[in-house]
């Protein structure tokens, strides 16, 4: 059954790449470990010998008495929102690398611009077999779509049961279906980058609000003499979360737009060759 075969092809392409349901929980665990054992390493704080080993989170020393000595220690003092923001940053990095390699593979092995020029030149000469050989060499999503279009072109050119208009409709449908099968693989996980570009800022704002609440609480609880240490801790927590959230969001948005432009470029190449295939078919058949 053709429908079943197409469904299997769609599933196969969607299955390509990383599975967010599996990867994101793993990245969260990594983010928490970085927060506890890298940022929270006693070496990042004053009087490290009193804090023991492992992480200051498991130290018997009161958290108010722990003072950072390095930038990593300062980030640790950002509070419980920090491991979430670290997870967001790692997630952006991991899925950006994944999209980079997937889209690179989708473009094929050779230079894509040269491939488009070569195929269009062969189509103008009605050299379909040579164009199919170029597709086999190029591979990738663009090569797959073009090969499907050329295979249909070749089959329809020998078909005597359909008139020219019906053949054009069938050719156009074959190219559209081939493009539809490739798009899920190209666009998979792009929503993660888009979502984190917004959510990271909101989570950072939550951390900022929590930090400011602590700061104002310290300001008001001391009566006439505010607790300067608690006040500065609350303000630094607010600013740390703000910086991490804005940085993560900025990187996610930049990379999302970059990969979106790459996908648009691949789609444009497919449309460019598809138009040439249709024009060639109309001219020579």
TrEMBL record:
<feature type="transmembrane region" description="Helical">
    <location>
        <begin position="74"/>
        <end position="95"/>
    </location>
</feature>
<feature type="domain" description="MotA/TolQ/ExbB proton channel">
    <location>
        <begin position="153"/>
        <end position="271"/>
    </location>
</feature>
<keyword id="KW-0472">Membrane</keyword>
<dbReference type="InterPro" id="IPR002898">
    <property type="entry name" value="MotA_ExbB_proton_chnl"/>
</dbReference>
<feature type="transmembrane region" description="Helical">
    <location>
        <begin position="192"/>
        <end position="218"/>
    </location>
</feature>
<dbReference type="InterPro" id="IPR050790">
    <property type="entry name" value="ExbB/TolQ_transport"/>
</dbReference>
<feature type="transmembrane region" description="Helical">
    <location>
        <begin position="21"/>
        <end position="40"/>
    </location>
</feature>
<keyword id="KW-0653">Protein transport</keyword>
<comment type="similarity">
    <text>Belongs to the exbB/tolQ family.</text>
</comment>
<feature type="transmembrane region" description="Helical">
    <location>
        <begin position="238"/>
        <end position="259"/>
    </location>
</feature>
<dbReference type="Pfam" id="PF01618">
    <property type="entry name" value="MotA_ExbB"/>
</dbReference>
<keyword id="KW-1003">Cell membrane</keyword>
<keyword id="KW-1133">Transmembrane helix</keyword>
<keyword id="KW-0813">Transport</keyword>
<protein>
    <submittedName>
        <fullName>Biopolymer transport protein ExbB</fullName>
    </submittedName>
</protein>
<keyword id="KW-0812">Transmembrane</keyword>
């Amino acid at each position: 059954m053709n429908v079943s075969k197409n469904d299997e092809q769609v599933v196969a392409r969607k299955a390509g790449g990383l599975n967010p349901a599996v990867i994101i929980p793993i990245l969260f665990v990594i983010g928490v470990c970085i927060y506890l054992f890298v940022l929270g390493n006693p070496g990042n704080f004053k009087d490290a010998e009193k804090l023991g080993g492992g992480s200051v989170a498991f130290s018997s020393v009161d958290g108010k008495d722990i003072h950072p000595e390095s930038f990593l220690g300062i980030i640790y003092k950002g509070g419980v929102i920090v491991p979430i923001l670290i997870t967001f940053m790692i997630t952006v990095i991991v899925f950006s690398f994944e999209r980079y390699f997937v889209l690179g593979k989708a473009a094929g092995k050779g230079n894509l611009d040269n491939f488009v020029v070569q195929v269009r030149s062969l189509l103008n000469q009605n050299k379909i077999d040579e164009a199919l050989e170029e597709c086999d060499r190029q591979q990738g999503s663009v090569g797959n779509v073009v090969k499907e279009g050329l295979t249909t072109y070749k089959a329809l050119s020998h078909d005597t049961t359909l008139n020219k208009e019906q053949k054009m409709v069938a050719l156009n449908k074959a190219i559209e279906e081939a493009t539809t099968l490739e798009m899920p693989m190209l666009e998979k996980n792009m929503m993660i980058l888009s979502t984190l570009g917004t959510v990271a800022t909101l989570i950072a704002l939550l951390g900022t609000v929590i930090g400011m609440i602590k700061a104002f609480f310290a300001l008001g609880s001391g009566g006439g003499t505010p607790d300067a240490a608690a006040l500065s801790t609350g303000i630094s927590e607010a600013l740390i979360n703000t910086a991490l959230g804005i940085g993560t969001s900025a990187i996610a948005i930049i990379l999302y737009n970059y990969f979106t432009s790459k996908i648009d470029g691949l789609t444009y190449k497919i449309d460019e060759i598809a138009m040439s295939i249709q024009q060639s078919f109309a001219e020579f058949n």
